[in-house]
Amino acid sequence: MSVSVIKILRRFNDWFLKAADYLFVFDCIGLSIFIVFNAFLRYIFQNEIYGAEDYTLLFAMWLYFIGCAIATYRDDHITADLIHSLLKTDKARYIHNIIRISLGLVFCIIVTKWIYFYFGWCIELHKVTSMLKVPFAFSVFALVVSFTLSCIYQAIQIIQNCQLLRALNHHIAHEGRGAEK
Prior knowledge:
single chain
């Protein structure tokens, strides 16, 4: 890949991460205010906002799934990985990471394919929410963005771990030659 394409992709990624931070702040504040306001109306005034669940669904889907993409970018998902803590060498840890992330990527690609079909199905059938008739495609698009980015980020992590493993092997090989002299 040429250097200019890589620069463009890095700029896009930097822009996405910055936009995601603003989206999180806006989404968290908006969703919290909306839920508290709706609860206040429902329990104090025995009234509610018509279609509140539709808005909550839309905001929550974007909040959750963009958070998933960011967690994938940072390799920060919650794990219960005992194997990694038992591995003694960096080489074994890199190999373990490559296998772990590769399996995650395979799963992510399969789910992403299903999500693209579901997104197309929502558009084709004009699926809408029951109350406000908001197109489902708006909330499902959060899954499209999230899983597409997750696939890209996992592929990058595999490449990075392979590069680290290669550099480690290169370093070990040079150390071995130095010890023989």
